[in-house]
Structures are given as structure tokens and as C-alpha cells.
Amino acid sequence: MHVAVLMGGWSAEREVSLMSGAGVADALESLGHRVTRIDMGHDVAAKLAEAKPDIVFNALHGTPGEDGAVQGMLDLMGLTYTHSGLATSVIAIDKQLTKLLLVPAGIPMPGGRIVKSETLYDDDPLPRPYVLKPVNEGSSVGVAIVTAEGNYGNPIARSTPGPWSAFDELLAEPYIRGRELTTAVLGDTALGVTELKPLTGWYDYESKYTDGKTEHIFPAAIPDEITQACKQIALDAHRLLGCKGASRSDFRWDDEAGVEGLFLLEVNTQPGMTPLSLVPEQAKHCGISYPQLVQAIVDEAVKDRALKEKAP
Predict the structure, then answer these.
(1) For the chain, what is the total number of helices (H) and then of strands (E)?
(2) Catalytic residue list contains 13
(3) Would you call 250 a catalytic residue per the annotation?
(4) Prediction pTM value
(5) Is it the case that residue 207 has pLDDT exceeding 50?
(6) Residue 80 pLDDT class (50, 70, 90 cuts)
(7) How far apart are CA 108 and CA 196, in angstroms?
(8) Cβ(283)–Cβ(277) under 8 Å?
(9) Distance from CA of residue 249 to its chain's centroid?
(10) What pLDDT score was predicted for residue 258?
(11) CA angle in degrees (0–180, nearest 5) for 179-259-143
């Protein structure tokens, strides 16, 4: 097939997307596909129209490649593409919308609320410790953990750097002590559970994408009931949101509270495909090579297109 790989773009996750796209393109070429690599700019529609690919592999991260904007464009152009569609992308990129869909279905997620950043200079929105994060960013971009002993001030000082100076609104959530877990879903199968142990600090952007900054333990050394709960919740969330191809669900687990201490934080519909990314890592442990993983994601998109064409 002729596959156009969309990568790059202008989000805060541009560099990660370029790494994902390069890996995907190399894998597709190793499988014998013809590949057109497109670093997405504002002329992306013209480039795609000129390339006339059989399928688009969406290797973008963040907005506008993960929030439904690119998906809507590809739908209008009549192009088949990998990963989740427009509606799923719009909901999953928005942490609050995701809660509104998943919590009523029984998925455990932290409480919290949307706050105006300006109000943080007057008072804390929640008892400390709590977490502040942008509503629609990934890769821990713009996340701050506000503790009683932290250096943000009490209340947060207006002059202190943080996400409140970059975003008008933030999601405030209670801080969940404990351990960082993640589960990949490929197609209709939850692959397993990885525990992430940053060597210093917490699992922020630098820890995610700098080699040697975080220890990945797979399978996670956790009770079987927690492993099974992570896999079931990740699969249920994948299905409820309507995800396609691969997704990754991130959890916090309070290991002093058993299964009641397990909370889904978010579902990533465009998980990374870099050398340090968790979906390829879990797939490898399950006997699925990187090229096989890429091909499986392409195959599901092709299958989904065929089903739509047969529909009345």
C-alpha cells in the first residue's frame, strides 16, 4: 500500500511525534509499503491531495492531530486513517469530557473540577496536595503537583512559573499517592501492565522521553487483582470511547488501598511510537515486533473502512 505518515505538527509534543513518525515510516518501508512522510504544516491538506495515499498513518501527538481536527479534515477528504475517529478524539483529548462519559459507566477516575487559572492566586481549589493540569494536553505537558511544602506559594504566587500562566483554565484533581501504572490496548486486547518508576521526581515530560530517567517494569510487580483490574478498565474505556488501533490508559494506584485505590487518569488515543514508548514496549514483551505492531494498526484501519463501505 501507499501510506502517508503524518508527523510533527506544531503542538508541544512535536519532537515526540517526529520520533514516532520516523519509526513508523521505517517499519512500513521494511514491510514493503510505499511511504510518503509528511511533517504537518498548514498546507497538510494540499500535500495529502497531491500524495493520494491509500491510507494515512496518524503519528501526530497533541493538538490538532489528536483532538479531532485532523480527523475531521481526513474524513472530509475521504481518506482512510489509523487510530481513533473524530468523535472519540474530541472526547478523549478532553479529560473532563472523558470523565463525563466513563465515570457513569463505572470507570474509577479522580474527582475534581475545572478552575479559572486567575482564581488560583486567591485560594486553593482543593485541599493540598492536589494536581493541576491542562484539560486537553498530553505527555504530562503543563502538569503541576501542588503540595503544602512546595515552592509555588500558598496561595500560588502570581509571579511563580506554572501552567496557570499558560492556560486560562485548568483541571484540579486530588493527588493520588502511590504508583504509576499503564496498560496498552491493541485492537480488542489489553496487553499488560507496566509500572513506571522515575529515578527522580515524578513521571513528567522529561522522565517520559529521556533515556535512563524512568525504570519500566513489565510485567508490573503488583497483585494479580490489580493487573486484571487495569487490563479490564483499559479495555472497557477503549470500547466505551470507541478507540481504534492502539490506545494507552494511564493509572495511579494507592497500594495501601487495594483495588479501591486504583484510578484511571486518562486514555491516550495516539500513544507514542518512539524507542522509549510504552505501547511498542508492551507489544514486544507479548511477542509482537515493532513492524508487526505498525501493521496491526494499519490492518484495523483497513478493516474498519471495509465495514463502513458494506454498511447500508
Answers:
(1) 9, 13
(2) yes
(3) yes
(4) 0.91
(5) no
(6) very high
(7) 20
(8) no
(9) 7
(10) 96
(11) 35
Question: What is the pLDDT, as a whole number, of residue 153?
Answer: 87
Asked about 266 being catalytic, the answer comes back as yes
Q: How far is CA 83 from CA 30, 68, 186, 201, in A?
A: 21, 11, 10, 32
Which is the catalytic residue, given 266, 277, 281, 300? 266
Compute the distance between CA of residue 13 and CA of residue 57 in angstroms, rounded to an integer: 17
Residue 138 pLDDT class (50, 70, 90 cuts): low
- The answer to whether residue 268 is catalytic is yes
State how far the Cα of 73 lies from the Cα of 43, in Å rounded to an integer: 12
pLDDT in tens, 284-310: 999 999 999 999 999 999 998 888 887
User: Are the CB atoms for 111 and 173 separated by under 8 Å?
Assistant: yes
Q: Is the four-CA dihedral 83, 35, 210, 167 of positive or negative sign?
A: negative
What is the C-alpha to C-alpha distance for residues 169 and 113, in angstroms, rounded to an integer?
10
Q: Label each residue of 228-241 as H, E or C.
A: HHHHHHHHHHHHHH
Coil/strand/helix, residue 132: strand
- pLDDT tens, position by position, 83-104: 999 999 999 999 999 999 999 9
Instruction: Indicate the pLDDT class of residue 150, thresholds 50, 70 and 90.
Output: confident
Q: Which of 8, 9, 112, 272 is catalytic?
A: 272
**pLDDT for residue 200:** 64
Catalytic residue among 13, 137, 281, 300: 13
Taking the CA atoms of residue 79, residue 85, residue 89 and residue 90 in that order, the dihedral angle to the nearest 10 degrees is 90
From 81, 152, 209, 290, active-site residue: 209
**Which of 17, 20, 139, 207 is flagged as catalytic?**
139
Sheet order of strands, 144-146 included: 113-116, 169-174, 130-133, 144-146
**Closest to 187 (Cα-Cα) out of 61, 307, 305, 297:** 297
